[in-house]
Amino acid sequence: MTVMDSPLTELPGVCLEPDRQPGRRPEGRDRFTISEVAAYTGLSAHTLRWYERIGLMPHVDRSHTGQRRYTSRDLDWLDFVGRLRLTGMPVADMVRYAELVRRGDETFAEREQLLSAHRDDVRRRITELRSTLDVLDYKIGIYSDARRASERA
Prior knowledge:
The protein is built from 5 helices and 2 strands. Helix content is about 60%, strand content about 5%. A hairpin with a 5-residue loop joins strand 1 (about 60) and strand 2. It has a two-stranded antiparallel sheet. The chain is mainly α. The radius of gyration is 21 Å and the shape is elongated. Helix 4 (about 90-105) packs antiparallel against helix 5 (about 110-150). Residues about 1-20 have low confidence and may be disordered.
């Protein structure tokens, strides 16, 4: 089983929200060139090829002339990978996750553990960012008060 053959339940619906994509997915088709995928995802062709080389984007079909032909399922996978990137998941962990998906259903527990550990890290970073935001708001308030006071003088 390849990543692309995994059940759609592996790709949560939240990953498919169109407002999260740099480009609009062409409708009514299921074969896309690397340039179309680059435009849709915001990833460069170089990055897409690199994803293939490292096993994050395994087995992209080719045309009879050797050109990559991505499917809607590939785009779904790239949407999910993009979400993982936004959360700061290390590439090595994303590759590990892809390997687990390819190994099949017997890896559900490992996948759950990997994603749960990453979710805990994301929550910790969100807490840190909220605290940092509070400090920024405090400092902005000081400057705003000082500016208003100097304008009244």
